[in-house]
Design a protein that fits this description.
2 copies of one chain form a homodimer. With about 230 residues, the first copy, chain A, is α+β, with helices and mostly antiparallel strands. Chain A is about 40% helix and about 15% strand. The first copy, chain A, contains 8 helices and 8 strands; from the N terminus they run αααββαααββαβββαβ. In chain A, the strands form 2 sheets. In chain A, strands 3-8-4-5-6-7 form a 6-stranded antiparallel β-sheet. In chain A, α1 crosses α2, α1 crosses α4 and α4 crosses α5. The radius of gyration of chain A is 20 Å and the shape is globular. Chains A and B meet through α5 and α6 of A and α5 and α6 of B. The structure holds a DNA duplex (30 and 30 nucleotides).
DNA sequence: ATTATAATTTAGACAAAGCTAAAAATATGT
DNA sequence: ACATATTTTTAGCTTTGTCTAAATTATAAT
């Protein structure tokens, strides 16, 4: 009886499920429900059950009927490699192909399934081993290591403290375009001036400019922990 | 009744058939047989019949039962765009990703199916609008125009004439590696010294070096028509 | 504890893209 | 022209990934 050392081929659909399950596991750790996966994948729970069985047979996750799933060691490794590809391609699109950060997701969804380890390693080198993608999300390295920085949400900063914007929690095109429109970019230092009890909006200062941000906006902006 | 202006989505398989049919049409013009397509696609004639029906319904080719197929205007345009993508990606892989010319085909086969016109146009710009790919094959431009140069096969050059090597007819990895091993590259000037009647091999001179090439090799090397 | 509700799984169907084996049409040889 | 060979098509099956509808299990409420 062999230990399967040969990496089996995965279909795009299988890869997409794996990635979705990984992301769900980040959001709230523990066991992941069929319904949650269906929601994330925009599909039906019955389809999820089928796929989850297949992924479980292939050893990417642990699954017991009616008990939900969680990724195996192997599943995590595989998911990290897919995320690595996705984020490297996003970086490539923004840095070299003149895309803006709200345009890259769909295309990276396609590119992340290209099978060639050499290509990904060369892309990594070509981009000078970036640590984060255009949305500030960390890029796993060749060994699956992800650099994690101390961070908090802008909405949790105290009055009169500041932080540098290093990422977004929601990376939907509409949110990203909102930020562009209001000239808020990764790397900007944001100082909290005032908090409005009524609607939890906050008044901030960015590079001399003052503006007020709704709670929804503030709770989707990730800033450095150590405030100056 | 609309003229379909909206480009319908094509599956990867459909795109592959279209490309194969286009290439077959180049090789020997006229009507293309089911068997020839099956051979090219490494599949069975019955599968070809099914696919050809679909492509015909979608208006990419003209098909009458038992009469073979040929591409429609629309099919040609589509095929040229797929070839454009394939060859731009091959160029990218060699020029920017440190691949050698015998490694790029399989990966370009995957990349050619990525759907994003903007990406391809940006890639074109990024590579400075190359006219030929790493194997010397012409890259169709955004409008489907292909630059064609006067060329002949090395095996057809007269004794004591020379030509510049501009392409290969066979771009299999084994042939390309043979050329690498013998230090024959695109751009090299090759002079024909002698022809051997017995086996049609030829004796040539390349940058001072003399070597003899079998007929098979010589008839797969494309050189400029106008010999110096 | 029993029932109602929600979550999950099963069963059966469908489309895409392939296959094999058999049938039909075309082409070829004498 | 007719029989044979070749090419092409059809019919029916397989797999992947989806769906709907029905059945089953788990959870929550009284």
């Amino acid at each position: 009886m062999y230990f399967c050392s040969i990496e089996k081929f995965m279909t795009q659909s299988e890869e997409n499920y794996l990635k979705a399950i990984y992301h769900l596991g980040r959001k709230n750790p523990g066991v992941i429900s069929t319904n949650a996966i269906a929601e994330e994948m925009q599909t039906k729970p019955s389809s999820v059950t089928d796929m989850v069985k297949r992924l479980s047979e292939k050893g990417f996750l642990n699954y017991k009927k009616y008990q939900g799933v969680n990724l195996s060691e192997r599943g995590i490794r595989k998911a990290l490699m897919i995320i690595r590809k996705h984020r490297l391609w996003e970086t490539f699109l923004v840095e070299k192909m003149n895309f803006s950060w709200d345009e890259v997701h769909e295309i990276a969804e396609q590119l992340e399934h290209i099978q060639s380890e050499k290509l990904i390693d060369e892309l990594d080198r070509f981009l000078a081993y970036p640590k984060v993608d255009p949305h500030g999300d960390p890029i796993p390295d060749k060994n699956g290591e992800v650099q994690s920085r101390k961070s908090k949400l802008l909405s949790n900063l105290e009055i009169n403290t500041s932080g540098v914007c290093i990422g977004v929690r929601d990376s939907s095109a509409s949110f990203l375009r909102y930020l562009d429109k209001n000239q808020i970019a990764l790397g900007d230092r944001i100082q909290v001036m005032e908090k409005e009890d009524f609607d939890d909006s906050i008044r901030v200062q960015i590079g001399g400019r003052k503006l007020s941000l709704s709670h929804t906006i503030a709770s989707n902006l990730i800033v450095t922990q150590e405030s100056e």
